[in-house]
Amino acid sequence: MFKFLSYNFNPTTYLATFSYQGSDGITFQEKIHFCKTDYPLNTELLDRALFLCFILIGTSYYKAHPSKNVGINFPLDDFQTKFFNTVYQEGLSQFAFENHLTRADLAHFSANTTEILNPIRTEDFHGILSLQSGGKDSLLTATMLQSQNPTYIYISNSDHYPSVLNEIGGELQIVRRELDREHLRETSGLNGHVPITYIVQSIALTQAIINHQSIILTSIGREGNEAHAYIDDLAVNHQWSKTWPAEQLFAEYLHKYISPDLNLGSPLRGFSELKIAELFVEECWAEYGHKFSSCNVANYRQGEDNSELGWCGDCAKCANTYLLFAPFLPATELDSLYGGTSLFLKDSLVNIFKGLLGIDGFMKPFECVGEIKELRRAYHMKSTDYPNLPFSVPESNFDYEKITAAQPFVKNLLTQLGV
Fold first, then answer.
1. What percentage of the chain reaches a pLDDT higher than 90?
2. Between helices 136-144 and 273-283, what is the axis angle to 10°?
3. Of 127, 124, 140, 121, the residue nearest 173 (C-alpha)
């Protein structure tokens, strides 16, 4: 049994601690260093956000020894039970696939109360807190938000953060997540992907409450709905917590249990990844084209210095980015990000491109990448100065300019921004 032991927030140091125990008896404690402000703490509201953090962060330690049974001495009603079951099953689908587990092997929370908490009104909260990573999506959002005087938040697991974030204007808050790597190394358990977007959203939500801000923005386009595979009725999806249904579910939890006056979502939700690339070239490339990165290998490994962002040129994220920008940039300009090399000519990337483009039965890589039909469209839109891949790519009628659904508050925000 995996146990959720306790969580605590120190109002003097703004340090939050979250404690868990694996089925092997090893105890884990994660620490998060939030940013102090001059606003008074709304302790009840803060506690509800911290509880959400507590359960979502638990996925990072639960995965070591996954169990159907979980021990939690905190009240859960029916909706919360369904919500956390969804997170620990669909959000851990890639982990299950790679470790030969099924939905039945994953956590099953049980309701233990019929008493439903009423949300807390926060009509005096105002302003925007926007998550930043130094990637194309969040830098595009920052460019769109220049007239709104937002605060930016970067969640780090080291003492470093991308220096490009010093150039976007507005206050920058660095929240440090201190994972319990020592005890994770001690366990002989499993490893794998967790629903990281939900985790960072819950942390940003908590900081927004500390800041008395009412809008929390991510930078997620129309992505993530395409499954990599299936385990019986469980869709295997690396990006589950980035999907539109996941955003809606998170917003529903937020309004039911925390506050109806707080909103969390993405102003890019209605745009395809290909459209976001086009907008980035139009609005941001001159400023950030040689400062941003979407490469996890080069920049986002735990504890490493990512002050200056770069590209490895050998991973699925690099290949995905190359496809998305090829229609909108000259080959020499895009190649300059990768040491002057065309990624279409790299033998080491052929099978990765086949996976991205759905060729010869290769599985789409477990990464945050575009849908197959979208990337096929990108490939056939590429400028004529790009070489061809050494295999045939089917045509696609993917409508990359189509605008799809987003939350009502996002539509209002985009209207204010003139988008």
1. 85
2. 60
3. 127
Instruction: Specify the pLDDT at position 209.
Output: 98
Q: Name 27's bridge partners.
A: 21
What's the burial of 316, exposed, middle or buried (CB within 10 Å: 0-12/13-18/19+)?
buried
Both tokens assigned to 93: 């689908």
Asked if 272 and 222 count as a contact pair (C-beta separation under 8 A), the reply is: yes
**And the tokens for 12?**
């003097």
Residue of 349, 360, 345 whose CA lies nearest to 394: 360
Q: In angstroms, rounded to a whole number, what is the distance separating the alpha carbons of residues 122 and 259? A: 7
**Structure tokens given for 341:** 């090399």
pLDDT(415) > 90: no
Residue 101 CA neighbour count, 13 Å, CB half = 25
Give residue 4's identity as a one-letter amino acid code.
Answer: F
Phi, psi of 222 (to 5 degrees): -80, 95
In the chain the first and final C-alpha atoms are separated, in Å, by 49
Q: What is the pTM of this model?
A: 0.95
| Pair 237, 228: CB distance under 8 Å | yes
pLDDT of 159 over the 90 cut: no
Residue 318 tokens, joined: 């690099």
Which two three-digit tokens encode residue 261? Answer: 């006056």
- What the block records as the tokens of 14 is 């703004």
Q: Residue 300: what pLDDT?
A: 66
- pLDDT above 80 for 299: no
* Parallel/antiparallel/unpaired status of strands 263-265 and 215-217: parallel
Backbone angles phi and psi of 59, in degrees to 5:
-60, -30
